Amino acid sequence: MYKVGSILLFTILFCGCSVFRPSISRNMGSIGQSVDNDIISNIEIKNISKKNFFIQKAQVEISSSGLNENFLASVKFLTPDTFLISLRSKTGIEAARIYLTNDTVLINDRFNRQLIYGKPARLGMKYGLTTEILPVVFGDYISNTERLNGEPTCEKGITVLNSSLHGSKIKYIADCNEGKIIAASMESSTNQGSTDLKFGKFMKSGTVSYPSDITITYQEMIINIKIDRFESPWDGIIDFVPGKNYEIIELL
Questions:
Q1: pLDDT band at residue 123, thresholds of 50, 70 and 90?
Q2: Cβ count near 33 (within 10 Å)
Q3: SS3 letters for the chain?
């Protein structure tokens, strides 16, 4: 049986990233086209985290050193910063439930009957993960960051956006016409490794476009996430119930 530590990887891999070099052959725009603030605003407006959303079912596969692990995930999100992530075995048994806000981390580890608690600052120091950075997993562009490059331009319909968040450098590659991020990478101040992300097979839910196929590469590990059911806007609530009689452990 996989450990909770391994099934959390798809949410804790944002600890650093090398430069991502995509191979894209389709012509999506004019070479040298200026990317003005209207285009950047268009990318920000199309962030799925602009609205409440509910990923009802996602299939997650982790491949590393010849071993494969498969499980199911669901994600509830309430603006501006509240996540509830449920991780389950393929048979539907819940392994962990993770509650994240800008000031709280709570994890029900059902296998080990432990309730792990802490502050996002500790999670950020240990894994490089915060609620600010988590939307990048779903192809969002974080707007409240320091832009590192000048006015970017479109080359064959693609623009590169470089930014910095709390010392971590984030590189986005966006489709100028669609206004969506198609790849991202991060290089953290702690130099704990590299992570690359690719986003594909964009689908519609109402007025929202989301990537249904996400690939995360971290050193020798590859994580594939396939979103089967997505709802946005979502009118629901988030309720985290701590495990009864669980051992209480502080996140260190």
A1: low
A2: 17
A3: CCCHHHHCHHHHCCCCCCCCCCCCCCCCCCCCEECCHHHHHHHHHCCHHHCCEEEEEEEEEEEECCEEEEEEEEEEEECCCEEEEEEECCCCCEEEEEEECCCCEEEEECCCCEEEEECHHHHHHHHCCCCCCHHHHHCCCCCCCEECCCCCEEECCEEEEEEEECCEEEEEEEECCCCEEEEEEEECCCCCCCEEEEEEEEEEECCEEEEEEEEEEECCEEEEEEEEEEECCCCCCCCCCCCCCCEEEECC
What's this model's pTM, rounded to 2 decimal places? Answer: 0.82
| Tokens read off for 203 | 């689908």
pLDDT value, residue 69: 86
Between CA 142 and CA 196, with CA 170 as vertex, the angle to 5 degrees is: 110
Phi/psi at 23 (nearest 5 deg)? -110, 105
Token code pair at residue 243:
């495990």
Strand-pairing partners, residue 172, are 161, 184
Question: d(Cα 166, Cα 150) in Å, to the nearest integer?
Answer: 19
Is the separation of the CB atoms in 224 and 70 below 8 Å? no
The contacts of residue 144 (CB under 8 Å, 6+ apart) are 132, 165
